[in-house]
Amino acid sequence: SFELPSDSFKHLGWCDIEELGVRGNQLRCPRVREGPSEEELFFRKEEHTLKKRKQVTDTEKWEKRLQENWENCAELNLSFQDLGDLYQVENFKRILRRLIRVEKLWLVDNSLTDLSAIRLPRCRELNVNKNHFTSFKQLPKIPQIQHLSLAENNITTLSGISDFRHTPLESLILKRNPCEFQERYRQLVFSSLPNLKMLDGIPKLPEDCSPPDVRLFYRMCTIL
């Protein structure tokens, strides 16, 4: 076996490549996942892939911050990077706190459990499918949200869903969450979110906003 010429760059972030002028807001799907630790690389016998660390000056730190330019990102896809891992989460949350103008954000399949300390003031579309959220309370603050996708998480109850009552939320996807099997699931969601127009890809139906006396009928068991 032999090493490819690109082997020494496989754990290098784009900001660390010399003489590269690309900025974060120019990348739709940037890799932000941190590479393995020095100790892990040693045991893998891959020390040669680690860029030699040098003392970073304040000027270089500021240049890197300008190059990342997360503040001006409008659309960003950080999916499939396992960013909820303990080794990744500090850098990941640092980036999230800088996304003050992001409008569309995809964080699919990242083992995320709690982003409640994060605020995304302009986010209109958020996709956090295939993560480990168990409650609506663990989601970031998203006051301008219009489209929210939470498929394939572990949300067991609808507790906390009313926090989105005063947002412009129009479309919500909760497929393949335990709460989907709750009795009168659709009626409960639409009664909590009167502005909602679509749930799990299905538009709001007349029976989703049935009056109280009709709802009682759905609790009855009819044996044919």
What does this structure look like?
It comes from Hylia prasina (green hylia). InterPro entries: Leu-rich_rpt, LRR_dom_sf. This is TILB protein. Keywords: Leucine-rich repeat, Repeat. There is one protein chain. With 224 residues, the chain is an alpha/beta fold. It has one domain (7-205): Leucine-rich repeat, LRR (right-handed beta-alpha superhelix), CATH 3.80.10. Helix content is 19%, strand content 8%. The chain has 5 helices and 7 strands. It has helices at residues 38-44, 58-68, 89-97, 185-192, 212-219, and strands at residues 75-77, 104-106, 125-127, 147-149, 171-173, 198-199, 202-203. Strands 1-2-3-4-5-6-7 form a 7-stranded mixed β-sheet, covered by helices on one side. It is elongated. The relative contact order is 0.08. Mean pLDDT is 86; it is low at 212-218.
